From TrEMBL:
Functional summary from the UniProt entry: Ferredoxins are iron-sulfur proteins that transfer electrons in a wide variety of metabolic reactions.
Entry annotated with the keyword Transmembrane helix: no
Sorted UniProt keywords: 3Fe-4S, Electron transport, Iron, Iron-sulfur, Metal-binding, Transport
Protein name (Swiss-Prot/TrEMBL): Ferredoxin
SUPFAM superfamilies membership: 4Fe-4S ferredoxins
Protein's organism: Streptomyces olivaceiscleroticus
Keyword Transport: yes
Cofactor: [3Fe-4S] cluster
InterPro entries linked to this entry: 3Fe4S_ferredoxin (IPR001080), Fe-S_cluster_ET (IPR051269)
Length: 69
């Protein structure tokens, strides 16, 4: 499943890093790193991360394609 994080929205709150550390990383203070291609066994964690993100910066699946139009 593809995801996109809108890094212009992301405020580095790190909720996603706590919920899905295999997908999201915050090595510095500001720049979030993530795997755009999420393995199936991480999908539920990523959904929880998207729901927990205070600024709704994480787009999953269909939302990624809709955003690209
Ligand atoms: S939870 Fe949202 S705002 Fe926080 S680091 Fe993740 S994507 Fe960025």
């Amino acid at each position: 499943m593809q995801i996109v994080v809108d890094l212009t929205r992301c405020q580095a709150y790190a909720q996603c890093v706590f919920l899905a550390p295999e997908v999201f990383r915050l090595p510095g203070e500001e720049a979030l790193l993530y795997r755009p291609d999420v393995p199936d066994d991480q999908l539920e964690r990523v959904r929880q991360a998207a729901a927990a993100c205070p600024v709704q910066a994480i787009l999953i699946g269909e939302a990624v394609r809709a955003d690209a139009r």
